[in-house]
Write a structure and sequence with these properties.
Radius of gyration: 29 Å
CATH architecture: Alpha-Beta Complex
Number of domains: 1
Strand content: 25-35%
Low-confidence stretches: 24-35
Number of helices: 2
Structural class: alpha+beta
CATH superfamily: PEBP-like
CATH class: Alpha Beta
Shape: elongated
Helix content: 10-25%
CATH topology: Phosphatidylethanolamine-binding Protein
Strand order of the largest sheet: 2-9-8-4-5-7
Length: about 180
């Protein structure tokens, strides 16, 4: 009887071993977003990122935008756009400049110059063009954000930041920014 019992147990263990579930190695779980190489850069010879914007490029100076250098555009860029914002303004973010349809062959924008064939829009002062940094008090940050887009933007010169952002939705390939500050 013991022999039959032991033989039965061995047989059951053998059957279980043959038909047991075999663990399949799991694919590694990605815990962070995939790395995207971003090469696009917006720089200025007037100031470095997170540095003070020289007085010359403010309402206390020549009232013009600083010079910019553009590099590392991604493949497929059909045009560039730029938005300049002051998030520290007392009444909420103040948009100083919206400009689009900048030729992607542009590598430099001279101080105060508007790139050929580009289009400026309406800023928060209700004016078309660039309004220089002019904080009422204290130091404010200014975000010069450059967008590489896969199309040209079909807006007229009265378009606002919100309209430009809506037109770029789904067309932004890459963006970068240069941050400056100015205080009075």
């Amino acid at each position: 009887m013991k022999k039959i019992y032991i033989t039965g147990v061995i047989l059951l263990v053998g059957i279980w071993y043959i038909f047991r579930p075999i663990p399949v190695p799991k694919a590694p779980v990605q815990t962070s977003a995939p790395q995207v190489v971003k090469n696009m850069k917006l720089t200025s010879t007037a100031f470095g990122s997170e540095e003070v914007i020289p007085k010359e490029f403010t309402c206390d100076g020549k009232k013009m935008h600083p010079p910019f250098m553009i590099s590392g555009l991604p493949e497929g860029t059909k045009s560039l756009a730029m938005i300049v914002d002051d998030p520290d303004a007392p009444m909420g973010t103040f948009t100083h400049w919206v400009i689009w349809n900048i030729d992607p062959a542009t590598r430099e924008i001279a101080a105060g110059e508007i790139p050929p064939k580009s289009q400026e829009g309406t800023n928060s002062a209700g004016e078309i063009g660039f309004t220089p940094p002019c904080p009422p008090s204290g130091s404010h940050r200014y975000f010069f954000t450059l967008f590489a887009v896969d199309t040209t933007i079909g807006l007229d010169g009265k378009a606002t930041k919100a309209e430009l952002e809506a037109a770029m939705k789904g067309h932004i390939i890459e963006q970068t920014n240069l941050i400056g500050s100015y205080g009075r």
